[in-house]
Amino acid sequence: MAVGVFDLFSIGIGPSSSHTVGPMRAAAVFAEELKAAGTLKKVASLRLDLYGSLAATGHGHGTMTAILLGLEGFHPEKILPEEVEERLASIAETGTLQLAGAGEGDGVPLPYGVKDMILRPLTVLPRHTNGMTFTVSDADGGVLHSATFFSVGGGFIVREGEEDAAQQELDESKKELPLPFRTAAELLKHCENTSLSISDVMRVNEEDSRSEEEIRE
C-alpha cells in the first residue's frame, strides 16, 4: 500500500485525525491559496459551512478551533502547543483572526470566530460525511474564492472534484512500490515469497522514498 507508517502516524493536535487534523489542514490550504492568488487583501468576509459528522461532533473533537488555526495559516504538524493556546486565546478575546498570517504577520484581520461557523449536521455531502466549504467575499459581496474539502481519515484531505484524480494517483503510487499490496492477503503473500516479516516488508517500501537514516530517526 502507498500509505506508509509516517503517513498513518502523522503529527498534529488532537483528539482526532479526521475531525481535527484534516479540517485544520484544509483550512490552511485554503488560506494559502488566497495568498498565492493575490486576493488575500481583498477579503472582507468569510463563510464556513460544516456538514455531517464534522458539524455534529465538531465541538467535542476540537474541529472549530483547529479550523481557526488553519485559517491563520498554521499546519497541524508544525504548530507548537504554546502557539495553539496563544492564538485561540487571542481570537476568543478579540473576535478577530489573522487570515493567512501565521509566521509572517502579513495576514488580514478578519472578524470571525467559532460562533460564526454554519453547522449542518443533518446534511451529508455525496462524497463523504466529513465535508466543509470555505467561501470568502470582497467588500461588495462578490465571491473571491470558494472550495469544498473532505476530511477522509488519518488527517488526509481531498478537494471536491478531485476525488477521482486522488484515487488514481494513489493507485499509481501503489504500483511503483517494491512490494505493493492492497490487502492483508497480498501482504502475507509477500512475506511467504520473500521470507520477510510484515515489518520488514513495510521497511522495504518505506526505503523506496526515505533513507534508512530518516526512517531510524
Describe this structure in words.
The protein is built from 9 helices and 7 strands, in the order ααβαααββββββαααα. With 217 residues, it is an alpha+beta fold. It has a 5-stranded mixed sheet. Helix 2 runs parallel beside helix 4. The longest helix has 21 residues, at 17-37. The chain is elongated. The two termini are 22 Å apart.
Largest sheet: 5 strands, mixed
Radius of gyration, Cα only, in angstroms? 20 Å
Order of helices and strands: HHEHHHEEEEEEHHHH
Helical/strand content category: alpha+beta
Overall 3D form: elongated
Give the rounded overall mean pLDDT.
89
How many helices does DSSP assign?
A: 9
Number of strands: 7
Helix content range = 40-55%
In whole angstroms, the N-to-C terminal distance is: 22 Å
Strand order of the largest sheet: 4-1-5-6-7
Low-confidence stretches: none
Percent strand equals 15-25%
Question: Can you give me a brief rundown of this structure?
Answer:
The chain is α+β, with helices and mostly antiparallel strands and 217 residues long. The chain is 45% helix and 18% strand. The protein has helices spanning 5-8, 17-37, 52-61, 63-71, 81-94, 163-176, 184-194, 198-206, 212-216; strands at residues 45-51, 96-99, 108-111, 118-120, 131-137, 143-153, 156-159.
Task: Record the SSE blueprint.
Blueprint: H1 5-8, H2 17-37, E1 45-51, H3 52-61, H4 63-71, H5 81-94, E2 96-99, E3 108-111, E4 118-120, E5 131-137, E6 143-153, E7 156-159, H6 163-176, H7 184-194, H8 198-206, H9 212-216
Parallel strand pairs: 1-4
Antiparallel strand pairs: 1-5, 2-3, 5-6, 6-7
Helix pairs in contact: 2-4
